[in-house]
Amino acid sequence: MIQKFKESGYEIVDFSDKADIYVINTCTVTSIADKKSRHFLRQAKKLNPESVIVAVGCYVQVARDVLEKIPEIDLCLGTNEKSNIVYYVEEFLRTKNKEIKIDDVFKDPEYSEFGSVTYTDKTRAVIKVQDGCDRFCSYCIIPYARGRVRSRKPESVIKEISQIAKTGIQEVVITGIHVASYGKDFNNEYKLIDLLEEINKIEGIKRIRIRLNRAIINYR
Ligand code: SF4
Q1: Are 41 and 70 contacting, i.e. CB atoms less than 8 angstroms apart?
Q2: Paired strand residues for 209
Q3: Tens of pLDDT along 16-35?
Q4: What domains sit in the chain, N to C, each tagged with a CATH number?
Q5: Which atom of ligand 1 is nearest to the CA of 143?
């Protein structure tokens, strides 16, 4: 999202600075995360009462009824709407109409590409290869916030990593919501190990890590 705003000419400032637009990328993995998301939304409006407050992401996706009652919020965007955030913000700046845009997260059968990313870390890049989870563990809200498993096409992953390898980045961190499910939604036998082996062949990449929530596994 930062990259999309930069490409459209916006300046990114620290959250503690006075800004014209505040985007809070919410989390709903625990009730504490919900509480923190609400706190940051309210805090942003206090930093600049004239600003536009945008709530985005997982908590928005599952808690529309809560967030629509928070008067500080101008725009609520669910998981699928993140990729068009600049469009929605500019629409709001034009119309000043408060909006809640939350698509059905189970509707999209394919991974949606988010566009290219600028890497500020000179040594390591985090590469998202997958979204969603099909396991529906009884205590977990993630499948309802992120939808079912959608895997990013290997060609897209390889292309991105090949490009960043040319800039001198030697380490990639492979991530997603349920990375082990990578490839489950493809109509072939292509799995995470096949992707890792392809990444392993890319010239310049010296280390591959897999981020599984809090655990990190080194591949070589
Ligand atoms: S596997 Fe993990 S992300 Fe998926 S439902 Fe279970 S706890 Fe949630």
Answers
A1: yes
A2: 173, 218
A3: 889 999 999 999 999 999 99
A4: 2-101 (3.40.50.12160), 124-218 (3.30.750.210)
A5: 5
Q: Is 54 in the pocket of ligand 1 (CB under 6 A)?
A: no
User: What is the Cα–Cα distance from 25 to 144, expressed in whole angstroms?
Assistant: 17
Question: Rounded to a whole number, what is the distance in angstroms from the first to the last CA of the chain?
Answer: 31
User: Number of helices (H) and strands (E), helices first, in the chain?
Assistant: 8, 10
Give me ligand 1 centre to Cα 214, in Å. 13
- Ligand 1: distance of its center to the CA of 130 in Å? 14
Ligand 1 centroid from CA 78, angstroms: 19
Non-local CB neighbours of 54 within 8 Å, separated by 6+ positions: 21, 22, 23, 24, 73, 74, 75, 76, 77, 85, 88, 89
- Whether 136 is in the pocket of ligand 1, judged by its Cβ within 6 Å, is yes
**Is residue 205's pLDDT more than 50?**
yes
Task: For strands 207-212 and 215-218, give the pairing.
Answer: antiparallel
Determine if ligand 1 sits within 6 Å of the CB of residue 132.
no
User: And the tokens for 183?
Assistant: 């490839």
CB-ligand 1 contact for 213 (6 Å cutoff): no
The one-letter amino acid code at 99 reads E
| pLDDT value of position 113 | 83
The mean pLDDT value for 51-70 works out to 96
Query: How do residues 127-165 score in pLDDT, each as one tens digit?
Result: 999 999 999 999 999 999 999 999 999 999 999 999 999
